[in-house]
Specification:
The protein has about 425 residues and is mainly alpha-helical. About 70% of the residues lie in helices and about 0% in strands. β1 and β2 form a beta hairpin. The longest helix is centred in the last third of the chain and has 33 residues.
């Protein structure tokens, strides 16, 4: 009954949005964004603690999560900035302000409200930036950062068979060296620098192994020393050759080095205990079937028991007997899998794919950049929600608690997604005029 009430509210709100001209969102974009930031800052002050999160405002019988609406106003602000006359996405200098517009609400939600899942959704705006011309190296570096974090955490407690240190740092450092060599040979066409760099790194490790014959050597320091050598050598080459692209490789090495050193600190000092245990279970570092891994295990059992055609509507035993927690919110996809089986799940995912492609098509046919950037931001948000939600239900993503659009129970998310879509529909209607 309450969800029907939210549906009716969304329809009324959608009607109001469709009566507002597109120019209003452009003109008032920054004002909306500023008011949204104030609301996000005020939320932890007045919110009550719900499962360790301070992200819900209660007004009588109604509870709202401002973070769900922040995505919409952030998309409008980013679209307004990137639609400025003469704006071009050439390098990181052009992306400084959009990154800030994306990062400020993300930090407020993550730090002040302690809501990691809702905060991480803002990363999806990078996909919209990429469509507008952002270099693919930014997205690539993001993927590499995730890989480095996984490698350092997953193998950080494994000792080396020689000297001291851990396998995580050694593997992650080797990955960085490999990427740099690939960039030097493939992008820079500088075989000479690649050979000298490889020889220098080999000398660093060779000296470490030689000294280790007599004195135990911490190879974590050897790995870092090899990265410092690479950064200094490439910096000299960048100055000699006057190539800014070489400078970007130097920046990649330096930032990756700091990341390798900071992963362990972030994992043990910044992440909450329940977040750490979820990551450890996902990476196979711990087995906790009755604790942190319970939700995912029960979800997998429910989906697997659905087999090809499912058990039928409302006939699922794992879900209806309450073996799966949060089955009407974050883990609702396992209900689809158990009741409708593989075919039903595939149908839902296919409909989502068509839905997101349709949004991209609407964005692509906009006459101005404001509508196009906003449209791709909407598509990116839906894609991120779908990927992470289904991934965590299937046990291939960490459980961070974000809803499946228009399926998960909840008024804030339903209204947030509806507002995103109705504004895009209004923009498309103005395009037709």
């Amino acid at each position: 009954g309450k969800q029907l009430g939210w549906l009716a509210t969304a329809v009324v709100m959608g009607g109001i949005i469709l009566m507002i001209e597109e120019k209003a969102y452009d003109v008032l974009g920054y004002i909306f964004y500023g008011l949204m930031l104030l609301l996000l800052i005020a939320t932890p002050i007045f919110a009550r603690d719900i499962k360790g999160s301070l992200s819900w405002l209660t007004i009588g019988p109604i509870s709202l999560q401002p973070a769900e609406f922040a995505k919409c106003f952030t998309a409008i602000a980013i679209a307004k900035y990137m639609s400025r006359y003469g704006y071009k996405v050439r390098d990181l200098r052009d992306l400084t302000v959009p990154f800030l517009l994306m990062g400020v609400p993300m930090l407020i939600i993550m730090v002040a409200q302690k809501e990691t899942g809702s905060a991480l959704v803002f990363i999806s705006f990078l996909l919209a930036f990429y469509r507008q011309g952002m270099t693919g190296y930014v997205l690539s570096w993001g993927v590499v950062s995730i890989l480095l974090f996984i490698l350092v955490i997953r193998f950080g407690e494994m000792a080396l068979p020689f000297g001291t240190g851990n396998l995580g740092i050694l593997i992650s450092t080797t990955l960085i060296h490999t990427i740099v060599l690939g960039l030097l040979i493939g992008k820079e066409k500088d075989l000479r620098s690649a050979i000298i760099m490889a020889l220098g790194v080999s000398v660093c490790y060779g000296i470490g192994l030689l000294i280790n014959i007599w004195v135990s050597v911490n190879f974590n320091y050897v790995a870092i020393a090899s990265l410092v050598y690479v950064a200094i050598y490439l910096l000299i080459q960048a100055v000699k050759q006057r190539k800014s692209s070489m400078g970007w490789i130097v920046g990649f090495v330096m930032v990756s080095t700091l990341l390798c050193q900071g992963c362990d600190f972030a994992f043990h000092k910044i992440l909450q205990p329940h977040q750490r245990i979820r990551i450890e279970v996902l990476l196979g570092m711990k087995d906790d079937p009755h604790g942190a891994g319970y939700n995912v295990n029960q979800s997998l059992i429910a989906i697997g028991s659905g087999q090809t055609t499912g058990k039928g509507f409302l006939q699922g035993t794992q879900t209806k007997l309450k073996f799966v927690p949060e089955q009407d919110t974050d883990f609702i996809f396992c209900t689809i899998g158990e009741e409708q089986g593989f075919l039903g799940s595939a149908f839902v995912l296919t409909m989502f794919a068509i839905f997101i492609l349709r949004i991209m098509w609407l964005a692509e046919r906009q006459n101005d950049r404001f509508g196009r950037v906003y449209g791709y931001s909407v598509a990116s948000i839906f894609f991120f929600h779908l990927t992470i939600n289904v991934g965590m239900v299937l046990g291939i993503m960490p459980v961070i608690g974000i809803p499946l659009p228009f399926f998960s129970y909840g008024g804030s998310s339903f209204l947030g997604f509806s507002i995103l879509l109705f504004i895009l529909l209004r923009m498309d209607a103005d395009r037709a005029v």
